[in-house]
Amino acid sequence: MPTSLLHLALALAALIAALPAAAEEPGKVYRVGFIGNSTAALESNLVQPFREGLRELGYVEGRDLAIEYRWAEGDYGRLPALVADLIAQKVDVLVTAGTPAALAVKRATTTIPLVMVAVGDPVGTGLVASLARPGGNLTGLVSIAPDLEGKRLELLREVAPKLSVVSVLMNPANPFHALSEKQVRAAAGVLHIRAHLVRVRTASELDQAFEAILRERSGGLIMLADRVFLHNRARIADFATRNRLPGVYAYSELVVGGGLMSFGPSYPGMHRRAAYFVDKILKGARPADLPMEQPEKFELIVNLKTARIFGLTIPQSVLLRADQLIE
Fold it and tell me: Is the model's pTM score more than 0.90?
């Protein structure tokens, strides 16, 4: 072979070797199954960053990528059927948010890779062997931090110094809440606050929960991270506002909707980061070998308009720590 042709052949070989795996199979369309806990409208702020993350990595929907969406509409009982449906569609990778959805996938398949977003305690709930080496077909992003619920309760005490009783919205159908309950009880004991645990599994139980909170004459509200609560955020925020009940929530969406404060990781940011895991898996990485990631930062958002309605003065110590103030 002439030298010039040899050099050309070597250059072409190097170029082909450098191409991303997603482009190695001409005409291949990867199928991603996305299981949302709520509805498309209520989770648009999460889906959009995920799609943008995939685009930034070179994927074009309709050309080499198709996303199959399924929505639980706030009902965990629908998760097994949604998972089974996507498995039947032969998706290449699944994406879920929260512990209940991840557990539904784990029970259904050991072969289809799963990228988990915002799971609470994946080791304690048996989802993975460890954060560093998950093992099996699951990996993704963790939403926990040491004593997260304690920090939320401390924030509530700062803005409501006379707080003596706090109601805590939790979902017994969410296995992660067993750990959260321990955190709340421990923090409440240190702060000499009585924790009134209000267990809600479905939206149909919310009115009864609200009545129980009022009976207890709670001075504040803590809402644990749970997609049933996120799905019904308008009802919860409206209840708190009507009853001048200061609360600290796991999701910023409740503060935008009129709640007082939220403290937690950026869930849109975690969904954007999930695209990185999807990309790695589509290029051949095994979920078992992809370390799970923990949040680097937790955001504090305060609604000053709501504080004025409640007649509260937010301490300077809280204002200086806030990442966002809503006027």
Answer: no
